[in-house]
Amino acid sequence: MKYTEDDLREELKTKEYEYGFFTDIESDTFEPGLNEDVVRAISLKKNEPEWMTEWRLEAFRAWEKMEEPEWANVTYEKPDFQAISYYSAPNTKPKYDSLDEVDPQLLETFDKLGISLDEQKMLAGVAMDVVIDSVSVATTFKKSLDEKGIIFCSISEAIQEHPELVKKYIGTVVPRTDNFYAALNSAVFSDGSFCYIPKGVRCPMELSTYFRINQGGTGQFERTLLIADEDSYVSYLEGCTAPSRDENQMHAAVVELIAMDSAEIKYSTVQNWFPGTAEGKGGVFNFVTKRGICEDNAKISWTQVETGSAVTWKYPSCILKGDNSVGEFYSIAVTNHHQQADTGTKMIHLGKNTKSTIISKGISAGKAQNSYRGLVQIGPRAENARNFSECDSLLMGNDCGAHTFPYIEVKNKSAIIEHEATTSKIGEDQIFYCNQRGIDTEKAIALIVNGFSKEVLNKLPMEFAVEAQKLLEISLEGSVG
Amino acid sequence: MELKEKLIASFMAFENLVDVDAPVHDVRSEAIKEFEAQGFPSRRDEAWKYTSLNSILKHDYSVFPKKENRIDYNDIKKYFIHDIDTYKIVFVDGKYSSHLSETTHDGVDICLMSSALSKPKYRPVIENYFNKVATKDGLTSLNTAFSQEGAYIHIPKNKSVAKPIQIVHFSTGNESSLMLQPRNLIVVDENSHVQIIERHQSLTENPVLTNTVTEIFADKRAIVDYYKIQNDNENASLIDSTFINQKQESFASVHTFSFGGKLTRNNLNFYQNGERIDSTLKGATIIGNRQHVDHNTLVHHIEPNCESHQDYKGIFDDNATGVFNGKVLVNREAQKTNAFQANNNILIGDKASINTKPQLEIFADDVKCSHGCTIGQLDESAMFYLRSRGIPEKEAKALLMYAFSNNVLSSVKIPEIKQRITNIIAKKLGVNIGFDL
Q1: How far is A338 from chain B (nearest CA, A)?
Q2: Contacts of B364 in chain A (CB under 8 A)
Q3: Positive or negative, the Cα torsion across B37, B40, B44, B46?
Q4: Which family does it belong to (chain B) (predicted)?
């Protein structure tokens, strides 16, 4: 029988979330609700010093006065912040020195995700700081990082062991009052990663963290702080998969990057939170604030592959403060079924001779809405700033939408800005061309989508590119209109 | 008193001047309520993020000119496209000036809004078209509430208007500051063709704020060419809202030339209610010292197989600020839409700035939509080429800037307008060359 487009579309529709499973680990979970006592309790639970508790409380007080933003091009039922449990940690403590001691059920979870630690250790050369429901349970390769003086640990550990670094840098790039979700995160963040690369050190391996939301009904509030000291280099991977759940789960993370003089940070994300069912039920709300600051000659590069989440609200940004600094943003956002994504970047040019590149690819299928929202701002003192932006959207089917909202604000006459956006569908002629050469429709679409996203996929580190490609395939096979 | 309160209070005085029993008065009363509720837009409104009206709303504007003012044709001849024969609808301080105008009722109606609103024979057209495509935002509602004078143009089926129509508003400066609310209605029936030139001109340095609304209806296969020449003096501000409703196979183009004025805001909205429609929006902006020009466009593609072309060029000197906020909206049904949007800017002045936001909102899959936006400087190698051939720096710059905006000029269908714009550009750039390359 001939495999037609309709079959493909049917298959796509019925394709269930492949990583949907739930690990039953006894958890230490707070009652739902949020007030100063809960913030204090989280802080106490994590055995934090006084200044950290105060810092959280100030954020909480600011948050109480803030309104949930509504400007994004997404519609969803607002989460009830009093119905969320703000702390959940796997009960199997204390930490392990080797994998053998880890709960076998957890290891099985990793296997299903295809991130077996042993395998990772041997083959990928990736140090993993695995976060299951907010508490770090395994950190590998720590020793070889230690030799170089690199600190790579969970943020709660960093608060205990490197309070001077945390105190100095936390909240400097994303202030607590930056926005509603950043304030919430600052108040209740449970865990996250901390990374410090000392002067002149080139991190020998890709640092990686897998976040998982595991416990039903708990919002996860990750906090990542990454500091690259002068002349250092680090490539950081962040990826996530979450189990199938019916009620909406909320994820409000904050990521802060600090690239000092001549440092380079490459931050890659593969996001595959549960997108909700084909009927638009459930799914993760992803409200993330990611921002990096570049000093002189520094470079920050954001690469993201967004395929999951019911609602995504995410704008990884670069503040190009130093002269000759460089910001890059490469993104593929895929939305299917009832997913909504409002994502993009901000490039704030303040220093002289700053450069930024934005490549954003949006793919929209089913009943999804995909928006690019970006800001390129050239300050009055940013001589010879240069920006190139390209936002392309691919539409599959007639129930989806693609939107582009670029903001360009230039206050210096020496700036050169180029912005370009296109929206189109996969052409029948392109499919025909492939068919003619013996490539079936499904493969042809995969080929075309791959070509469409290639510029971004190429920017991903090897380990991630494979996974990203897999995700694209799952999300997009055969929805040609 | 705040301008908003003053305007609302003035509405009662306005009611004494107009026929309150006319059906259109209900529309006015509705509109003033709407304005009362919404007021003037502020920078908190997304559409006004980059344009603040504060500096121009602070004047104590006269809402109604106290007396009629006469001006002599020879003093103002230069503001007309006078080397071709045209119909003219001329207003002085908001009042119709019959001795400067040339209207007609011969087969087509090219006359006044005030008579169209009051005379029964125009009632069907007014009922069908007046305030039907204009939006209900604060400024447009304000204009609707005070709508009384302006141009009324109705071209019946199968007519091609022989001469272009000039709509010119003068303000004499007899009032220390004046606010005008002109309202134009242009209805072009099937297979008809009309060319319109609009201009607002202040004759003194006294502040003027013009809040004008134009509604244009282009029926099947109609062709409408509209040219806006904005070269007012530096205390005059203009808020121009134009709404164009197009039916199938119609062709409408609006060219906006913004060279003068203190603050100029152009809201240009196209609604494509039919298939195989073509809409063209072009603009050339060359401004300098403390000037602000904001182009806010919308092309709403509602039905399939339509096209739209937007091309806006801007050159900003000194501390001028420019805004471009273009939006292309493609409905789910509007398959096979081709929509193009380009916005190119050159910054010359050290303190000049540009804010641009070209948006696409697309709900149909089989479309070709693109937008491009650039900000840059004059090409140094091109400058060198011209300089090395003995062309002085100023002239070389002017040539390059002219060439840059030529794309907008090239589609102007009336050669005299092209010539006029060329002269204005030469004057603006301070060079004495003809650009006839």
Answers
A1: 14
A2: 395, 398
A3: positive
A4: Belongs to the iron-sulfur cluster assembly SufBD family.
Cβ-based neighbours of B85, under 8 Å, separated by 6 or more: B163
Q: Does B436 touch chain A (CB under 8 A)?
A: no
A375 chain-B contacts, CB cut-off 8 A = none
| Phi and psi angles of residue A467, each rounded to the nearest 5 degrees, phi first | -65, -40
Q: Tens digit of pLDDT for each residue in B300-328?
A: 999 999 999 999 999 999 999 999 999 99
Give the pLDDT confidence of B133-146 residue by residue, as tens digits: 999 999 999 999 99
Q: Mind listing the pLDDT tens digit for each residue in A54-72?
A: 999 999 999 989 888 888 8
Q: How far apart are CA A453 and CA A471, in angstroms?
A: 12
- Dig out the tokens for B395 from the structure: 């002239």
CB-based contacts of A304, cutoff 8 Å, min separation 6: A268, A269, A270, A271, A314, A316, A330, A331, A332, A333, A343
Residue type, A397: G
Looking at residue A335, the DSSP 8-state letter turns out to be E
* H-helix segments, B205-268: none
> How many CA atoms are closer than 13 Å to the CA of A121, on its beta-carbon side?
14
B284: β partners:
B257, B313
pLDDT at A5: 54
Residues near A288 by Cβ (< 8 Å), separated by ≥ 6? Answer: A181, A251, A252, A253, A254, A255, A312, A313, A314
CA dist A85 and A32 (Å) reads: 4
Q: Which residue has the higher pLDDT, B332 or A99?
A: B332
Q: Which of residues 394-433 of A touch B (CB under 8 A)?
A: 395-425
**SS3 (DSSP) at A87:** coil
Range with the lowest mean pLDDT among A133-137, A240-244, B218-222, B370-374? A133-137
Neighbours of A98 (CB within 10 A): 8
Rounded Cα distance between B114 and B152, Å, is: 8
Three-state DSSP class for A148?
A: helix
Antiparallel, parallel or unpaired: β A416-425 and B368-376: antiparallel
Domain regions of chain B by residue span: 1-187+195-219+229-252, 274-377
Q: Give the ipTM.
A: 0.85
For residues A282 and A280, give the distance between their C-alpha atoms in angstroms, rounded to a whole number.
7
Bridge partners (DSSP) of residue A421 are A391, B371
User: What three-state secondary structure class fits A68?
Assistant: coil
| Residue B328 to residue B268: CA distance in whole angstroms | 12
The list of chain A residues with pLDDT below 70 reads 1-28, 88-142, 209-219, 240-248, 463, 467, 470-471, 473-481
Give the CA distances from residue A259 to residues A256, A268, A357, B226, in Å, rounded to whole numbers and listed in that order: 10, 15, 17, 53
Which residues is A369 bridged to in the sheet? Answer: A340, A401
Q: Please check whether residue A88 is in contact with residue A134, taking contact to mean a CB–CB distance below 8 angstroms.
A: yes
B207 upstream amide cis, omega within 30 of 0: no
Residues 345..384 of B with a Cβ closer than 8 Å to A: which?
345, 347-377
pLDDT of B282 higher than 70: yes
Q: Please state which of the ranges A215-219, B214-218, B319-323, B345-349 shows the lowest mean pLDDT.
A: A215-219
Identify the residue whose tokens are 């006359």: B111
- To the nearest whole angstrom, how far is the Cα of B345 from the nearest Cα of chain A? 9
Shortest CA distance to A237 belongs to which of A437, A465, A473? A465
Residue B338, CB-side half-sphere exposure with 13 Å CA sphere:
8
State how far the Cα of B231 lies from the Cα of B240, in Å rounded to an integer: 14
What single-letter DSSP state applies at residue A77?
P
Task: Tell me how far CA of residue A155 lies from CA of A74, A196, A368, A397, in angstroms.
Answer: 31, 11, 35, 43
AA identity, residue B317: D
Contact B361 A403 (CB under 8 A): yes
| Angle in degrees, CA B265, B268, B271, rounded to 5 | 160
Closest C-alpha among B331, B263, B337, B253 to residue B297:
B253
